[in-house]
Amino acid sequence: MKLLGISGTIVGSKTGIAVQSVLDAAKQFYPEIETEYLDMKDYQVQFCDGRDPSAYTGDTKTVIDIVSSADCYIIGTPIFQSSITGVLKNLFDLVPTAALYNKVMGFVATGGTYQHYLVVENQLKPIAGYLRAFVAPSYVYLHDDHFNAERQIADPDVRDRLERLAREVVFMNQKLKG
């Protein structure tokens, strides 16, 4: 089983830190699984222009292939202007819907206000529904206050929720895939 963590932004570090902490927890609880971290900062991805996903080349093709080959996901995004990033939306547009069908997704979001946690409910979960993916019951929203000056997750409750998310995604994937 391959669990892919995606940091769906090209700026900042908090989202990536949160996604990586879920991957670390999953590896701790389930050492037999493979984890991979996809940081969108590391790739020059083209904008989706409607062509068949197999027609893309370079970094765009690489990212499509990485996402398509995973069995389940931890998807992270910062919240900008009460929405997911354009980078993440573009990724969802690029990857063939069939590649995400019946796969388990868990969500992590970061933001500067406490109200933006609703973006997971109002945007990410409906996208997953359209893709016919399964969504873990928990998700984790991290506010700037949950990080210390060294950009480490300082809030023990948030760390516990990230661990719970890791367990849920792997458990769901194992049960659904037999």
Automatic annotation (TrEMBL):
- List, alphabetically, the SUPFAM superfamilies matched: Flavoproteins
Cross-referenced InterPro entries, in alphabetical order?
Flavoprotein-like_sf, FMN_Rdtase-like_dom, NAD(P)H-dep_FMN_reductase
Q: Is Ligase given among the entry's keywords? A: no
Q: Which GO terms describe its molecular function?
A: oxidoreductase activity
Q: Which residues form the NADPH-dependent FMN reductase-like domain?
A: 1-144
Record key words, sorted = Flavoprotein, FMN, Oxidoreductase
Name-wise, this protein is NADH-dependent FMN reductase
Q: Source species, please?
A: Paenibacillus dendritiformis C454
